[in-house]
Design a protein that fits this description.
The chain is mostly helical. It has one domain. The protein is 77% helix and 0% strand. The chain contains 13 helices and no strands. The chain has helices at residues 2-13, 16-34, 41-44, 50-68, 73-78, 80-86, 91-110, 114-123, 132-159, 163-185, 194-199, 202-209, 216-240. Helix 9 packs across helix 10 (163-185). The longest helix is centred in the middle third of the chain and has 28 residues, at 132-159. It is globular, with a radius of gyration of 19 Å. 33% of the residues are buried.
Length: 242
């Protein structure tokens, strides 16, 4: 697993793609947080990072499938997937190596945003007038949400050897789980089933963690989703390489 992890990380940072993705992410989020009048903290007049945590999942919804779309699709297209599996590397080691490499890249994307937290913390009146527990919970939620998106992206990449198709499919599945389920749950049609249906939506899980209290039920549910999509990816790889 570690050789695959190192290979993926080296591949990311030996090409301009990782740097472009980082620049786009930080620029987009920074503009929304500090410049655009409808979302700017400076215009809002209150030390709060709600805008950042509301906007970032939507940016990641497109960004993460863009990162993961080549992970398996490129290996299948070039035929290197069979070569890799002839080495002393199991399917699970291959999947986990690629998964952890992609998740680590997203973690590296989020680390510079701690500067935003420090800035908002200092802008408070008095300085430090910020709900740090809520910020911590939201960061935990972002990391777990990113973990689910990465697992979905890997599954999408394993379903097709075309990277563009993998990207579109990844975005669709992420959007469906993050926004689609909660939107459908809001229909009067469901009646008493509306609450349990909305609870399984990713945006509800993310908001629950952002309240500052880390509930084990939310963490276990998100980790279970990650495992489910990794299992589906392994199943797809098994079917491809038989």
């Amino acid at each position: 697993m570690l050789p695959i992890l190192r290979k993926e990380i080296t591949s990311f940072f030996s090409s301009p793609v990782a740097y472009i993705i980082m620049a786009v992410f930080l620029t987009a989020v920074g503009l929304m947080l500090w410049v655009f009048p409808d979302t700017s903290i400076l215009d809002y007049g209150y030390a709060d990072m709600g805008v950042f945590f509301n906007v970032t999942p939507y940016v990641m919804l497109f960004l993460i499938p863009a990162v993961t779309m080549r992970s398996i699709a490129e290996e299948v297209r070039t035929g290197t997937i069979e070569w890799l599996l002839t080495k002393p590397v199991s399917r699970w080691q291959l999947i986990l190596g690629k998964y952890l490499a992609n998740w680590l890249l997203i973690l590296l994307l989020l680390l510079p945003t701690l500067v935003y937290y420090y800035t908002v913390y200092e802008l408070g009146n008095p300085p430090g007038n910020l709900d740090s527990a809520s910020v911590f919970g939201s960061y935990v939620g972002l990391l777990l949400l990113a973990g689910v998106f990465v697992a979905i992206g890997l599954l999408a990449s394993s379903l097709n050897d075309n990277q563009v198709v993998a990207f579109v499919l990844g975005v669709f599945l992420c959007f469906l789980l993050y926004v689609g389920i909660s939107s459908v749950a809001g229909l009067e049609f469901w009646g008493a089933l509306s609450y349990p249906l909305s609870w399984i939506a990713l945006d509800e899980q993310y908001r629950a963690l952002g309240r500052g209290l880390i509930d084990s039920r939310n963490v276990v549910y998100l980790l279970s989703l990650i495992l489910l999509f990794l299992l589906l990816t392994e199943w797809r790889l098994t079917a491809r390489t038989r």
